[in-house]
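quick one, 404 residues, struct below
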Amino acid sequence: MIGSEITHGNVFELECARSCVLESINETGTEQAGIINTFGRTMAESIIDDASPNMRDIVLIDGYAVNSSDTVGASKKHPCSLGILTESASQRKELKSGTAIVVHHGDCMPMGADTVVPLEQAYRPDGGPEVLILAEVKPDCNIQSTTSPDQQNAILIPKGTVVGPNEMSLLAHIGRPGICVRRKPRVAIITTGADVVEIIENLEPGKIRNKARYEIVGMIMEAGCELGRLIHVKDGRIGIEKAISESLDSEIIIVSLSEKDKHEIAVNATANLGDVRFTGVHISPGLATAFGMVEGRPVFVISSANILESFEALIRPALLKSLGRIEIDRKTVSATLGKPLRLNPGHTHYIRSITTYKRGRYETRPLPSNNKQMCDFANSIMTIHSEVDTLKRGDAVDVIMLDT
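---
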């Protein structure tokens, strides 16, 4: 839909809008990152169990790691004698028949050893260079296997996982100093408003500070993305067109309109540069959410009055898809409604709320929409189907948890 073809009838249901957006999003490229720099990044490759020869079984007791075949027939009357390797030597080469290595609970099994002789079944004369094995020990005794025949080529860390402490620990354990990760997409933020000033400027009568920019900045960074250009526009459609053109070095562009600017100016600006896929979404609040493409770059147009709703419904899933994440949706729970609600049907309702976990269940209460400061501290969003007009206290509702 180009230029003058824009109509107000191009408003999508939420699920259709979401599908349209996600179909337009491509994953970012990849880059290598050292293990320290992988935290919070998205895996661009799967790590499988044979990715490193360093993945070894774990010792469960203090004793001597040996080859079980060297203990065959051993007894107190007829012990077998094995030479003891130093721990440093055991790390450099495979343990050979006729040798043993001192091990402790929690150690990795030395290469070439397949069992552990308990201390009480061994005797080391004068702490010397040999140990006498006083009993036969079967293979795989006193060790914990980290792999099994059924686990060969099993995925240890799947592609699309966000790297956290556990993943970093496993990467270190298997000897991976670096991995391939998704490059963080750059997101440009364009804000508008002749009455909007920067946060360091004096707040004169009739002016407001650029709260919208920093609200979106926080959301982008929480999603694991990088900031592109930050541009503020005071002169309408022409200024927005120029700002979008200057922001094409970013992968995704967000235009946040001030409450005094008309939705159409940003929609027309996007259409003049590319194409608009939809001009609105049947979501309340958030109807004035538009989406288009300019030179292959997704462009979102939202109102500064309901940034959270538009971001959670459409923008955040798009960002996470571009990162190649396995999960692009937040945790959703069923909660008991704490007070009755009366709604206007026809839109999917996103209602900011405070949700708590009490007595084995979630309870949620809507925040008053006329108190913007209180609404800024919502920890959840109730999602109500478009056909619902009333809800009673105690009814079950779906809740998106914002802190997970």
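Residues 307-322 form the longest helix (16 residues).
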